[in-house]
Design brief:
globular; 2 strands; 205 residues; mainly alpha; 72% helix; two-stranded antiparallel ribbon; single chain; 4% strand
């Protein structure tokens, strides 16, 4: 275990990227499992989709992109239709990335809240609400295919930059918080997957 922690500390960027990848994979598995029963799917996504789309709205306001239509939730999810932002390329990237930043920030504050406390021996109504909010945010915070398509060039350049200069990034001030928060998110998604799998196995008469 000590050797594993030492390896993670010496490869901080890689460690964080692996954690994000694991969270993303667990998210995809949970989405696929929840689709087997539509009411579970809508229940899990509802608050997260609203946060996701409102983040896009904020991004449009910040970049000067006139909003043409907003749908916070429908059978196919939500969407925000907007015109081109004043800032070429970077404007679409900001609009695309804001749901991820907002979701990460909200998740961080929930995880660090004195009222949350990841202790399954002390479950109460408030913790259940926080648990639910974390799941719905984790399911919807990542950019959609359309989000990435809108700012594909900037995403490509960002990934290329991280690959080239990633070793020079110093995450020491926030590394422990990132790892502990990421591991808690992984645990939450695993528990949520087990719950959804259990619900899918129940045959209502």
């Amino acid at each position: 275990m000590t050797r594993l922690l030492s390896l993670a500390q010496s490869n901080q960027v890689l460690c964080v990227l692996i954690l994000i990848s694991v969270i993303y994979i667990l998210r995809e598995i949970l989405l696929k499992q929840s689709m087997q029963k539509q009411y579970i799917y809508y229940f899990l996504l509802f608050p997260g989709v609203i946060i996701h789309e409102l983040s896009h709205v904020v991004g449009c306001i910040l970049t000067g992109a006139r909003i043409k239509d907003i749908q916070l939730f429908s059978k196919t999810g939500g969407f925000v239709v907007h015109e081109k932002p004043f800032l070429p390329y970077i404007g679409n990237f900001i609009i695309s990335l804001l749901p991820l930043l907002a979701g990460a920030a909200i998740s961080y504050f929930i995880l660090k809240s004195q009222f949350f406390g990841f202790d399954l021996r002390e479950i109460n109504g408030q913790k259940i609400v926080y648990f639910y909010l974390l799941i719905t945010i984790l399911l919807t915070m990542f950019p959609s295919y359309q989000d990435i398509k809108n700012a594909g060039t900037v995403y490509f350049l960002l990934i290329l930059t991280i690959l080239i200069y990633g070793q020079k990034i110093n995450l020491n001030p926030i590394f422990d918080n990132l790892v502990s928060s990421g591991l808690i998110c992984v645990a939450i998604l695993l528990i949520a997957n087990l719950l959804v799998i259990s619900l899918n196995s129940i045959k209502w008469k």
